[in-house]
Design a protein that fits this description.
The complex is a heterodimer.
Chain A lengths: L3 E10 L2 E11 L4 E5 L6 H9 L6 E6 L2 E2 L10 E4 L11 H5 L1 H5 L4 H14 L15 H14 L4 E5 L7 H18 L2 E6 L2 H7 L2 E6 L2 E6 L1 H6 L4 H6 L6 E10 L3 E6 L2 E7 L10 E6 L5 E3 L6 E10 L4 E7 L4 E6 L10 E5 L6 E4 L1 H6 L1
Parallel strand pairs in A: 3-8, 3-9, 6-7, 7-8
Antiparallel strand pairs in A: 1-2, 1-4, 4-5, 9-10, 11-12, 11-14, 12-13, 14-20, 15-19, 16-17, 16-19, 17-18
Chain B lengths: L3 H4 L1 H29 L18 H7 L1 E6 L23 H4 L11 E8 L2 E7 L2 H32 L6 H13 L2 H11 L6 H9 L13 H28 L4 H9 L4 H12 L1 H16 L3 H6 L11 H11 L3 H25 L4
Antiparallel strand pairs in B: 1-3, 2-3
Helix pairs in contact in B: 2-15, 5-9, 5-12, 6-9, 9-12, 10-11, 12-15, 14-15
Classes of the chains: A alpha+beta, B mainly alpha.
Chain lengths: 361, 355
């Protein structure tokens, strides 16, 4: 078990900087998820921690030891890959025991540790099969089995569930959660799937273009996103963003509105705005409620509706032709063309500076 | 979409026909011809009619026997010795030409060894063929493992993404592109006993201590010299096959091995080599078949000499069929070679089968 600490970590391929200075401290036994869109550098960052990629600048510590120059095996990490990376010519047993074989462990030790891993992952009956005889989920469990037999200080998961189908993904997600509680080891998990991030993580690190956007507990990020990117990345359907005018400003709040939005007061949360300038209002689709005509804050026309049974997702076209998604937690019928008025709790709305606006000033 | 080609049987056969005809005319037909001719006494040009001789050609080639010669004794039963004290034996001729042993008629000594006071002699009805057979096997036994493993080493070396790696790939592959006849001619100069490149280099390296060797003119160095050149010439070809095999191995497997702490050797043993199984079978079978077909190098460099030390099966087949105009003899060698290569390929496949 160990803490992992990244300080000013950078990575360049030639002249292109992929990781642009990352500081993250991961506590012993913590489950941290790196999440971000593809190309944000999350996998590269994980591979740098594993020792599969060089660190161009900055320091990486595992268990209080600087490991920048150490080989993967000396870092005490185990890794689970998206493509499983289990050896096709070995049986499940041999695959799980691979790290022990490499370390020239005794037969007895191997047998005991393989049995233990198989018990934890409930795959005792699969031990003599070959990978080609296993399903995707079973293969990934073999890979996890190989990782846990060595009792590493840190587990690294590189999109382990991305190759699985949706149903299996949910099973494996729960299994990883269970495993995590059982082992209590530090785990770093990379995914582009926000559901995995939200459900598994103690803390989430949101990355974009090689930079950390925000670090925090899942609900912290969900309810108090530090910026528009984080706000839009977490939550499904993703947060609505409306271009609004700043009508008035006082100490902690701003009065905003536009053609389709009645003026409302929204907390600025310390962000800079300018009276008479532009701003972006973020409202989660789930916070929108349909109300009777004349009482709504937003006015739009139904463009499309999806009924999911427990939820109805409505795509609206607002008066200023911008689009808005609303999610109602009940089964309701909407016809395209229906006029709809919506309201929401303004305390749950977020106001972000308009990036174009910021650049010009 | 169904086109006329996939629907019409006639069109399909028409397209197949040229290739089929060529293969039939130059491979299938000669193959059956060879089998047929090997049971006749057909000559390339002969006024006499062809006769069916059954397996006589095979007997003529494969006939082998061991004879034991006892020392010559005087009337008292004492062994006769010459001036140097060596035991005297009757001459082999007295047996092979004797009316008493018609089964040994025409056979000649292949090799002999001492067994107590007796001498054992292996006699063969065709000593040159036997030498060719042994040389061919020797060639394959040395070339297959050496060339295969050298090619693998080269492939491992060039399987890196380094600047200019294509230059190395090209250099290693170049000898393959050059005609084997040209290569053989060039190597004749390299192996030259007077001022060949090899002798010059060895002399320079040993500051003149090395005595020049006529590499191709010496029975004990001629075959190894041909082997070395053959290995050098085709190693690039097999390197490319290995390289193709190496590139099918997923890079994540190497990363997984690195994370688990595998050393270079362990990575090779547990990841690379198992991943190359099918490639290894292919390389082994191809080298073996090429080895058994050894001809051009011999034809250009040594003509089977000196003292038949570089005779090979294919060279003998050609030499007999066309040099001596003994088509049936040449055919027989071809059929024997076919049987050998087929048997070995089957054995190799069985040994390397998926378990």
């Amino acid at each position: 078990m160990a803490e992992v600490s990244l300080k000013g970590v950078k990575k360049s391929f030639g002249r292109v900087e992929i990781i642009k200075g990352v500081d993250i401290h991961i506590n012993d036994g913590e489950f941290v998820v790196f999440v971000g869109p593809s190309g944000c550098g999350k996998s590269t960052l994980l591979r740098m921690i594993a020792g599969l990629e060089d660190i161009t600048e900055g320091t990486l510590e595992i268990g209080g030891r600087v490991v920048n120059q150490l080989q993967p095996k000396q870092r005490g990490v185990a890794m689970v890959f998206q493509s499983y990376a289990i050896f096709p010519h070995m049986t499940v047993r041999e695959n799980i025991a691979f790290g022990l074989t490499i370390a020239r462990a005794s037969k007895q030790e191997k047998q005991q540790k393989v049995a233990e891993a198989a018990r934890i992952l409930q795959m005792e009956h699969l031990l003599d099969r070959r990978p080609s005889q296993l399903s995707g989920g079973q293969r990934q469990r073999v890979a996890i089995g190989r990782a846990i037999t060595r009792k590493p200080a840190v587990f690294l998961f590189d999109e382990p569930l991305s190759n699985l189908d949706a149903a299996l993904r949910m099973d494996m997600r729960m299994e990883i959660g269970r495993l995590r509680r059982q082992l209590g080891t530090t785990m770093i998990y990379v995914t582009h799937d926000q559901v995995e991030a939200m459900t598994l993580a103690d803390r989430i690190v949101v990355l974009k273009d090689g930079q950390v956007m925000q670090i925090g507990a899942p609900m912290e990020l969900y309810h108090e996103p530090a910026n528009r990117f984080v706000a839009g990345f977490l939550g499904a359907p993703s947060m609505n963003f409306l271009n609004v005018d700043v009508l008035d400003l006082d100490g902690e709040a701003a009065m905003v509105g536009n053609q389709s939005l009645e003026p409302i007061r929204v907390a600025t949360r310390g962000r800079p705005f300018r009276k008479g300038g532009k701003a972006i209002l973020g409202v989660r689709p789930q916070y929108l409620r349909a109300v009777q005509s004349g009482k709504g804050l937003l006015h739009g026309i139904v463009a499309h509706a999806e009924r999911l049974g427990s939820e109805t997702v409505v795509d609206l076209s607002l008066r200023d032709n911008s689009e808005l998604i609303a999610a109602f937690d009940e089964d309701k019928v909407f016809e395209p063309g229906d006029a709809l008025e919506l309201t929401f709790d303004t305390a749950l709305a977020h106001l972000f500076p308009d990036e174009g606006e910021l650049q010009t000033h | 979409m169904a086109s006329k080609l996939t629907l019409s049987n006639r069109a399909g056969w028409t397209f197949v026909l040229p290739g089929f005809a060529l293969i039939s005319a130059f491979i299938v037909l000669p193959f059956f011809f060879a089998i047929g001719l090997s049971s006749t006494n057909q000559r390339l040009l002969s006024p006499n009619p062809t006769q069916f001789v059954g397996l006589e050609n095979y007997q003529q080639l494969l006939g082998l026997a061991v004879v034991t010669l006892e020392p010559e004794r005087d009337d008292a039963g004492e062994m006769l010795r010459n001036e140097a004290g060596e035991i005297q034996y009757p001459r082999l001729r007295e047996i092979t030409r004797s009316e008493a042993y018609p089964q040994y008629r025409g056979m000649r000594e292949w090799f002999r060894w001492q067994s107590g006071e007796n001498v054992m002699i292996v006699i063969a009805s065709d000593v040159v063929f036997m030498k060719a057979l042994v040389n061919t096997f020797l060639f394959v036994l040395v070339v297959a493992p050496v060339q295969g493993s050298l090619a693998l080493m080269l492939a491992l070396l060039i399987n890196h993404k380094v600047r200019g790696i294509n230059l190395f790939r090209t250099i290693y592959f170049m000898p393959v592109v050059v005609s084997i006849v040209v290569v053989s001619l060039l190597w004749r100069f390299i192996y030259d006993g007077q001022n060949g490149l090899l002798n010059s280099i060895l002399q320079a390296l040993t500051f003149g201590l090395f005595q020049p060797v006529d590499w191709l003119g010496n029975p004990s160095t001629a075959l190894p010299a041909v082997m070395a050149m053959s290995i050098w010439q085709a190693v690039g070809f097999h390197m490319v096959i290995w390289l193709a095999g190496l590139q099918t191995i997923s890079p994540t497997l190497y990363e997984a091995a690195a994370i688990e702490g595998a050393s270079r050797w362990q990575t090779f043993r547990y990841v690379t080599w198992p991943g190359l199984r099918n490639t290894a079978v292919l390389v082994l079978v191809v080298i073996t078949m090429q080895g058994f077909a050894l001809f051009a190098q011999i034809d250009v460099m040594t003509n089977g000499g000196p003292l038949d030390s570089t005779q090979t099966l294919v060279f003998q087949a050609v030499e007999r069929g066309y040099g001596k105009q003994d088509i049936s003899g040449g055919s027989t060698i071809s059929v024997i070679l076919f049987a050998i290569v087929l048997a070995i390929s089957l054995i190799q496949r069985w040994l390397t089968r998926e378990r």
